[in-house]
């Protein structure tokens, strides 16, 4: 066996040319491509129309010639008046010599032959022309089949005179006085028809060329008009990229694809502006919330340092209380930073989360146990049925704990907190002051705190975390007044799932 490699496949020479053409086309701007496509479409339409017009006229003109030839009257007499010749050229020469000498015998019965006529005998081959003939018709090999024609039948074909001039030829079969068969060939010149078609082709070509030029101009105009909204959109995008002024919109006109694109861009720009506003507000609110514990922590640290520098140590009780305050402030900062990290997930790439089948009733039981530690003087009435959901166990537990912490915070001393989980609906009801109706729309906003509860501890992020965690699990959360019209607030969480793990 040979180790030589097979020759590479042959690439058609048109392939590189086609690739270069595609590369050139793709390198053009959208306006240039739209202009080219519009002009090409119009040019093809004009060219096809011109071509169809030419063929229709050609068919009509030749059809008229054929019709006139079919209706042309046959010669009145068919007789061998001159010595016959073996070819049409020789027969025409014989007639021309007779015309020059003036020895033109008359046809029996008198009268000239209609149009350009020629007679052909085959036994033996003989060609004769009328005495007034000026042209001879070229004979083709297939003309012999006309001897099989019946009376009143004829063959019409395109042909030529012996001098090369085009003609339309009718061939029919006739009988002489001696009952011999003779082919009668009658021809009509078509040079005028071909000249007319040539002139028509020039005219249509000029019209098509002018149409292509106009199509290019029209394509340019159409491209400029059609892409004007895109130009406005491009200007706005470049303005935003240059100035970072998100929220800029463009006017929407009509309901076509460009209008839909403009509407989508306006929605995106507005969403970006809202996202930036939320981000700015989050930073401002976070700074405000962080300032208070940091200021208090700094004051306590400065007091400890000053006491050590001055050599006047603080009393043990005061020092212990000061350190306890610092620990509480550190815990408050830790919780606030954890809440901020929890809420920052929708605005940043989310880390991989562990999604699994979670026993919501077990989460509720653990959350109630922790809430009892934070509110030792409160009464918890629970009724929890098994319910399994698909979600992040840690996030859902954090959400339930936040709801119970909120209930503990606003419950009066010795108050009751009702916790129910029935058919996937978790409710937490306290007997505190409740929430005014005009503040219900803000309860899930970040850092929002009711004016009446500003003196209570908290950052205003707990319910925001609840709403985010429940939405990520495919559920819904709401907060409103108690269903029985009594004091307190009622938090309701609905999560899809089932009474058994699937």
Describe, in plain words, how this protein is organized in 3D.
β9 and β10 form a beta hairpin. The protein is α+β, with helices and mostly antiparallel strands and 502 residues long. α9 (393-410) packs antiparallel against α10. The protein has helices spanning 14-27, 30-70, 88-101, 191-226, 228-243, 257-310, 316-343, 360-374, 393-410, 462-472, and strands spanning 116-122, 125-128, 154-160, 166-175, 181-189, 356-359, 379-384, 388-391, 416-422, 425-429, 476-481, 489-494, 497-498. It has 10 helices and 13 strands. The longest helix is centred in the middle third of the chain and has 54 residues, at 257-310. It starts with 13 loop residues before the first helix and ends with a strand. Mean pLDDT is 79; it is low at 104-113 and 347-351.
The spatial strand order of the largest sheet comes to 2-1-5-4-3
Instruction: Briefly note the structural class of the backbone.
Output: alpha+beta
Number of helices: 10
Distance between the termini: 64 Å
* H and E order: HHHEEEEEHHHHEHEEHEEHEEE
> Helical percent range?
40-55%
Give the overall silhouette.
rod-shaped
- Poorly predicted spans: 104-113, 347-351
Give the biggest sheet. Answer: 5 strands, antiparallel
The tally of strands reads: 13
Radius of gyration, taken over Cα atoms and rounded to an integer in Å = 52 Å
Mean pLDDT: 79
Q: Bin the strand percentage.
A: 15-25%
Short key terms for the protein model shown above:
502 residues, alpha+beta, 49% helix, 10 helices
């Amino acid at each position: 066996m040979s180790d030589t490699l097979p020759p590479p496949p042959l690439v058609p020479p048109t392939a590189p040319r086609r690739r270069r053409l595609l590369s050139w086309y793709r390198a053009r701007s959208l306006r240039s491509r739209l202009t080219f496509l519009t002009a090409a479409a119009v040019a093809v339409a004009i060219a096809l129309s011109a071509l169809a017009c030419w063929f229709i006229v050609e068919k009509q003109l030749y059809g008229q010639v054929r019709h006139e030839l079919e209706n042309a009257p046959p010669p009145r007499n068919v007789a061998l008046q001159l010595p016959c010749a073996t070819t049409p050229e020789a027969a025409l020469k014989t007639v021309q010599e007779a015309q020059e000498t003036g020895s033109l015998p008359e046809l029996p019965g008198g009268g000239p032959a209609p149009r350009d006529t020629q007679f052909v005998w085959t036994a033996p081959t003989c060609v004769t022309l009328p005495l007034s003939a000026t042209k001879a018709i070229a004979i083709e090999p297939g003309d012999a089949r006309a001897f099989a024609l019946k009376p009143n039948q004829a063959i019409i074909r395109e042909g030529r005179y012996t001098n090369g001039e085009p003609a339309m030829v009718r061939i029919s079969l006739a009988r002489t006085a001696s009952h011999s068969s003779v082919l009668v060939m009658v021809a009509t010149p078509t040079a005028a028809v071909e000249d007319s078609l040539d002139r028509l082709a020039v005219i249509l070509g000029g019209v098509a060329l002018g149409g292509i030029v106009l199509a290019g101009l029209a394509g340019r105009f159409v491209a400029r008009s059609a892409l004007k909204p895109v130009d406005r959109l491009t200007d706005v995008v470049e303005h935003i990229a240059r100035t970072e002024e998100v929220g800029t919109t463009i006017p929407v006109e009509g309901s076509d694809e460009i209008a839909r694109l403009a509407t989508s861009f306006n929605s995106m720009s507005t969403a970006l502006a809202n996202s930036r506003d939320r981000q700015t507000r989050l930073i401002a609110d976070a700074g405000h919330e962080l300032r208070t514990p940091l200021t208090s922590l700094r004051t306590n640290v400065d007091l400890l340092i000053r006491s050590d520098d001055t050599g006047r140590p603080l009393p043990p009780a005061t020092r212990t209380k000061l350190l306890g305050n610092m620990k509480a402030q550190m815990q408050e900062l830790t919780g606030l930073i954890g809440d901020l990290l929890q809420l920052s997930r929708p605005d940043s790439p989310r880390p991989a989360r562990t999604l699994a089948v979670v026993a919501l009733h077990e989460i509720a039981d653990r959350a109630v146990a922790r809430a009892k530690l934070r509110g030792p003087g409160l009464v918890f009435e629970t009724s929890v049925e098994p319910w399994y959901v698909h979600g992040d166990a840690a996030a859902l537990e954090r959400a339930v704990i936040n709801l119970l912490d909120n209930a503990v915070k606003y419950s009066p001393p010795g108050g009751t907190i009702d916790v129910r989980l029935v058919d996937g609906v978790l409710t937490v009801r306290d007997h505190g002051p409740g929430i005014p109706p005009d503040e219900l729309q803000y309860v899930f906003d970040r850092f929002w705190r009711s004016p009446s509860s500003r003196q209570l501890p908290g950052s205003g992020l707990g319910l925001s975390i609840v709403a985010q965690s429940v939405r990520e699990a495919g559920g819904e959360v709401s907060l409103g007044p108690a269903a029985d019209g009594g004091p307190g607030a009622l938090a309701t969480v609905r999560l899809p799932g089932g009474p058994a793990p699937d």
